[in-house]
Amino acid sequence: MKALHIITPVKNSIDTALDTIDAVLASNITIPFRYTVYNDYSTSENTAILEQKCKDSGGFQLVNISELTSNPSPNYDMVLRMAQKEALAAEAGLLIIESDVNFAPDAIQLLLDQANNLPLCGMAAAVTVNENGIINYPYEYAASYGKRIVDCSRVFSFCFTLLTCDLLKAIDFNKFDRSHTYFDAVLTKLSLKHGFKNYLFNTLPVLHKPHSSRPWRKIKEANILRYYYLKLTGRLHLMKA
User: Fold this and answer.
1) CB neighbours (10 Å) of residue 236?
2) What is the spatial distance between Cα 60 and Cα 24, in angstroms, rounded to a whole number?
């Protein structure tokens, strides 16, 4: 891996998004990297804030999805396809950091250093915790794993997840089923199917504030039956972000 591309998809939730951006820009990364924020139809007010942040910091590229497609949010498939193409061209790994995650300045480099030494690494993800340091959504299942790096077959989230260059070369994101909205589970399974190992870093907690960018997360945790009812009836997208 000669370089690293970092992406953050953003849909409103501007306060946590700005915190995430600041955390990336404050990180101590020893290899060349590029940071891109994909603004997926945030409000005009929040888009203006992101554009000003980009102008003031100069540390990241802002892509307004509304300038590329009329397809309504979410456009995660488009973001992943664009990011894969650019990362492969640069022989870079791809680190996805979602806009409700915060972390220490050394977190990215620690993930990179250790992932580079893990056999057949396809995905490497930091475990998420709440403000009290307790493992939270979507990694509650890892609470019993102990403080170690786990070769894991469970579904990963894109909260703070590295996709290695080898994985990007092996899987064509253009072939994803676009009837899906998000691709965390899809890519987790494809990674394992292609013979890679996915590693969950219970040694590297990052702060996750779920529900801030996607209101459906709160419903999913509080009432799983209502969540699937809304999903099956196509009503999740009607919720305000």
Assistant:
1) 18
2) 9
